[in-house]
User: Which sequence fits this backbone?
């Protein structure tokens, strides 16, 4: 379900992308309307015994824009932890499957995928099994994963460039631990 977390977590968006208010992702619509990130992208990297998941964002070199973006990501994660709708989870699952198939377009990408799966799982996972794993994710499973790995956890924050607006890690941890109800 970590792939669903990455996709559902906030997905990806950039200003050059069309769609505006018709973008299916709630967070992408908010980003479009608020105009504080230039772009963002969720990422997920699996390893044999651990993983790395988060959001990479680009914003204007404006303290307020950086602070608002970090707060918006946390707000979205809390919303997901409170409970995502079945329709939102299904949209994320469909999008994740599309991305995974599109990434294996060409022999180089297929070889990289095989190598990544061998290092992570010790075997090549058939597409049917990947599909079954993705389909097993429900709103309640997503909520459980978010509660275990995101809510009330110490976040890692990395900034590059004009980071004056990047909130202090203790403040981010406090906001990450704020009540869900």
Assistant:
């Amino acid at each position: 379900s970590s792939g669903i977390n990455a996709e559902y977590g906030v997905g990806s968006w950039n200003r050059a992308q069309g769609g505006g208010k018709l973008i299916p992702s709630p967070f992408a619509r908010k980003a479009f309307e608020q105009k504080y990130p230039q772009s963002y992208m969720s990422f997920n990297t699996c390893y044999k015994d651990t993983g790395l998941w988060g959001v990479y964002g680009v914003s204007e070199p404006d303290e307020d824009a950086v602070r608002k973006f970090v707060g918006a990501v946390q707000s979205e994660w809390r919303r997901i932890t409170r409970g995502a709708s079945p329709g939102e989870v299904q949209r994320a699952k469909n999008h994740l499957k599309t991305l995974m198939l599109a990434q294996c377009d060409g022999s180089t990408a297929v070889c990289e995928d095989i190598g990544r799966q061998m290092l992570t799982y010790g075997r090549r996972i058939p597409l049917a099994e990947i599909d079954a794993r993705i389909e097993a994710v429900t709103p309640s499973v997503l909520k459980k994963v978010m509660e275990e790995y995101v809510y009330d956890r110490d976040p890692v924050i990395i900034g590059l460039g004009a980071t004056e607006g990047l909130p202090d890690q203790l403040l981010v941890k406090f906001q990450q631990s704020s009540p869900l109800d």
Q: What stands out?
A: The first helix runs from residue 2 to 9.
